[in-house]
Amino acid sequence: MPGEVRARIVSPEDFLSAGLVEAGRLDEIRRVAERYSVAVTEDMAALIDPGEPTDPIAAQFVPSGAELMTSAEEFADPIGDERWSPVPGIVHRYPDRVLLKPTLVCPVYCRFCFRREVVGKTPAMLEPAALERAYDYIRERPEIWEVIVTGGDPFVLAPRRLAAIVQTLDAIPHLSVIRFHTRVPIVDPRRVGPALAAALQAEKAVWVAVHANHPRELTPAAKAAVTRLVRAGVPVVSQTVLLRGVNDDEATLEALFRGLVAMRVKPYYLHHADLARGTAHFRTGIAAGQRLVQGLRGRVSGLCQPTYVLDIPGGYGKVPIGRCAIHADDGYGGWAVEDGNGDRHAYPPDPDKAKMRE
User: Closest by alpha carbon to 276, among 119, 152, 118, 116?
Assistant: First the structure.
């Protein structure tokens, strides 16, 4: 079937037969699968070391009984999509841009996903009438400058369906940017062939944001998939979620962001993990995240620096939460600027100290 996700491990029994879990964990995995969708591609499964209990790829895709524990602060809709959904398939949180969700199918189901309550469920596709109503919503609002096609994962759609979405949006005069959010180039890179790249061609600017969390995900096949997009004229950025036990150390983030930039991908956002139900075991503290981001400042090129952001629970939007490097210094009415080592310097330089250096 065109657009069908291929080569996936999609049931607790599949995880067992693939050697990703031990037989003694089968009931645990079944209980998780009753509540949340489970799936991983063979590409990602091949990266997992089943003998390593803390394998960072397994942590992202192999279900765990920890997901059945819900903390008091967690939500079914942690970033408030429903609050800002005026018609099915549309989320209009910011004045100049909307999300368009034509499908709720993903090639993999990340165990930390903020949409884990709805992805992989039925109906998996937006009905044609509902999709047309979503287009009408965009057409009727000239303030909308950008459409972000997400889901689910839009790259699981057949190229002809992707092309139809691009062509429809390309024909809306007031739109300037069409952006796709996808895991596919990383987790199912063979899907990114010439037909998919051709489907993204438009007069308007088309961007792709890929999701990668660990440097081991940047396989030769993933690099080839991204190269096909770039050579088709599609600029690519990345999103990463800060995950405890996966990438919450400077060396791992450094390797990931360097690897992305070397693939011609600009790291865009480093997300603080959302308050989705059953994901407490993935979340770091914000202070720990700030220290990691500050530590990267002096280690890697500015090209490798994403913005550390938090999606405020309840639908209040995304905000940067990295530590501010500049602070008011009332001692002489100027500022104190903190360098990458944590040392503070007066700005402008303290006049008395400046004279002493002359």
Answer: 116
177 beta partners: 146, 205
Q: Is 113 a catalytic residue?
A: yes
Place of tokens 């599949």: 14
Let me know if 318 is a catalytic residue. yes
User: Which DSSP string do the residues of 32-43 spell out, in sequence order?
Assistant: HHHHS---EEHH
Give 71-320's CATH code, choosing from 3.20.20.70, 3.30.365.10, 3.40.50.300, 2.40.40.20: 3.20.20.70
Cross-strand pairs, 336: 327, 346
Q: Which member of 8, 25, 93, 116 is catalytic?
A: 93
pTM of the model: 0.93
Does the active-site annotation cover 25? no
Q: What is the pLDDT of residue 343?
A: 86
304 is catalytic: no
Residues of the chain with pLDDT under 50: 1-5, 356-358
Query: Of the listed 35, 264, 318, 323, which one is catalytic?
Result: 318
CA-to-CA distance for 201 and 81, rounded, in angstroms? 29
244 is catalytic: no
Domain boundaries, the chain: 71-320, 327-357
